[in-house]
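#struct-queue
[09:14] JT: dropping the first one here, sequence first, then the structure tokens:
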Amino acid sequence: MNGLYALKPWYADRLSGVRGALARREVSPDTLTAAGVLCAAGAAAALAWLPTPIAALPVAVLLAARLAFANLDGALARDTGRTTRRGALLNELGDRAADLVMLAGFLALTPLWLVATAGLAATLPSWVSLAGAAAGAPRLNGGPVGKTERCALVVLAAASGWVVPVLAVIAAGSALTAGLRCARLWRQLGTSAPAAGGVR
């Protein structure tokens, strides 16, 4: 079920030198969160304004940077002892904003209802995971269509022009991912004591 998320430890290891340099320069993790959103916005602009397949390279580079920043912000906070509840909130909001901003690039290419459907579906896996974490379960991540897969699908759309099929896969795959996470959490929490405020 983890999909491309299974590569995260390998990817984090590749970024360890960058993390060290950022720590030495006392870069704020919140700055990296904001940079990830800006990279997603740049990818959206390239997708909207550049023709296929010319858009593929800048979209791929900017979304790779978006994923790198998403990996680096939390890791840098942990490495430097700067983890805070506000930082955790900003990290979650930044991830959701980056996803939605990225998909907004399709507004120039296809009807609003399709982009809105894909955008809504793309947020569902994270909301399910956050609800599970609030109930005391481990945070679930990964695919089959998680954050990394959505970025890869957007690059595919930029390279091929298959806008409608890609958005349909993002919508259906994200909904499936949310459903699978929900089922897994339901099993995990079935015999657990209820969290405060979650009485049934």
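[09:21] JT: and here's the second one, same format:
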Amino acid sequence: MGQRKAPKDGDRKVGRRALLIGGAAAAAGTALLARDELARLWWRAPGVEKPRKEGEVDYAGARWVAASDANWRRADRPDDYGVDMVIVHVTQGSFDSAVKAFQDPAHKAATHYIVRQDGHVTQMIRELDVAYHAGNRDYNERSIGIEHEGFVDRPQDLTDEMYEASARLTARICARYGIPVDREHVIGHVEVPGTDHTDPGPHWDWDRYMRLVRQARTAPA
């Protein structure tokens, strides 16, 4: 009561302006989505591929052994998919059996790295590529996967050498991509949504591991 009603033409002008702004925002959003999709797909164009050297590793302490092409997807991370997570696995078998499985195209899964009980690190997939390791597409695209030789119900398999080597590896990955060293970004396979895996299991000492990662993160490279 006592308020003057705005002219009808004014209502129409506001409506048109809102429509124009909304349309511009929608167009801008569509353009951004298109640009993002093009950035993700650029390498699929004929004759276009990011330069790669056969046998090249991302971690200086690793030895290269290639996984089957069927167990990972070529990408251009972090340009197409940001990397903000490390996922810890346990092989449920020997180092040799894990390597063999990751080289088998029928296996349909592999991690970027395997850490042996003696601390030896093998890289099987480049970090810029998407490994099929988490059982969740979104988590695959945004993470680096690290397997550890052993069984989840055998605490003796989780050796000092393994913890220390893996912690140094994870520290370098976190430094490379600016990943926070915390339990929201360094997780176990069991914590991936939708997975039916239990690794790294109840004997994995997260407090110890994260302490070692933080120590390695602040140590000179």
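[09:30] RK: nice, looked through the second one.
[09:31] RK: Residues 164 and 212 are 7 Å apart (CA to CA).
[09:31] JT: good to know. The helical segments are 8-41, 95-102, 137-142, 160-177, 206-218.
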